[in-house]
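Supplementary Methods, section 5.1.

A reviewer requested that the exact input to the structure prediction be made available. We therefore reproduce it here, unchanged from the version used in the analyses.
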Amino acid sequence: MTPQARASVITLVAPAAWGSTYIVAGQLLPADHPLYAALIRALPAGLVLLALRRKLPTGVWWFRAALLGLLNFTAFFSLVFLAAFHLPGGVASTITATSPIVVMALAWILLRETPGWSRAAASIVGLVGVAVLVLNGGSSVEPVGVLAAVGSVVAAALGFVLIKRWPAPVDMVTLVSWQLVAGGLALLPLALVFEGRPPPVGAGSIAGLLWMSIVGTIGAYLCWFHGLTHLPAGTVALIGLVNPVVATALGVIIGGEEFRYTTAMGMALVLGGALAGQPAIGRLVTRRRATIDPCCDDDLPTCSGIPGEGIGRSAVGPQGPAGPAETGRVEELCSSAPAARAHP
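The structure derived from this sequence is encoded token-by-token as follows.
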């Protein structure tokens, strides 16, 4: 097995573990206690990672770590568990798969990163998929669950954009440990105020909480950041699409959830939109168009389909940039492209 394949397999553990969140929460954890579930998932894991790293924030990073912890773990974990208690796992996880769309929108607003036409179109496809899931999900799709799932996506996306805006002075595992501890500490008073005393737990609940804390948080985040370190970001993002697939499979097999053709259609639209919006896919399509058509301009949405060598109008052959003769040949092909299109 190559190092890249090994890194991909290790990274795959993270979305698979996260996909189990919904069935574990629905089957094992005390119902209607999302704050306590989030607290037990976040705080112990954060303390373990912090003990491993043994580094505290300094200066402005006390405030930034606290804010990121509120977004990425206080809000995100609580809302994910709330969605898990009120939605089928496949629907909840597929809605959360729209996170790249929200990240793109927030990056446009906060970071002035303008999305390309292909990513904007992919976002629309993904949103249509969410609408199909919600409107055709039947009585099992509760509004509070949908709102919680959407809220978790917005919170996590805002946290991601802020992390990009604030480059961390430490490695990602240390940064996550700060956020987990901050988010967990914020959850403690919220759980006491809004949910009262901790719910009684049996052996099943303890097993579910241990799974969520050890496998779904500590193990999953270590595997995820291993992937971010050893693989291109676009590859890691595509591996993340395993999450709703695992959640849906576990919901149908273990939870007895109904799987309709409209559910499959909605999931296909969401995952297809998320896939098409990845930068790596866009670059692949652009290179493919350019290989087929020497007249292809990277800024144009379509190409002519004239076979030839080169990328765009700067023909690059196997020996490097084209010389005057080759460039002239490309320009001749480009100038005659309309006629070629008219006469296939």
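Strands lie at 316-317, 320-321. These observations are discussed further in the main text.
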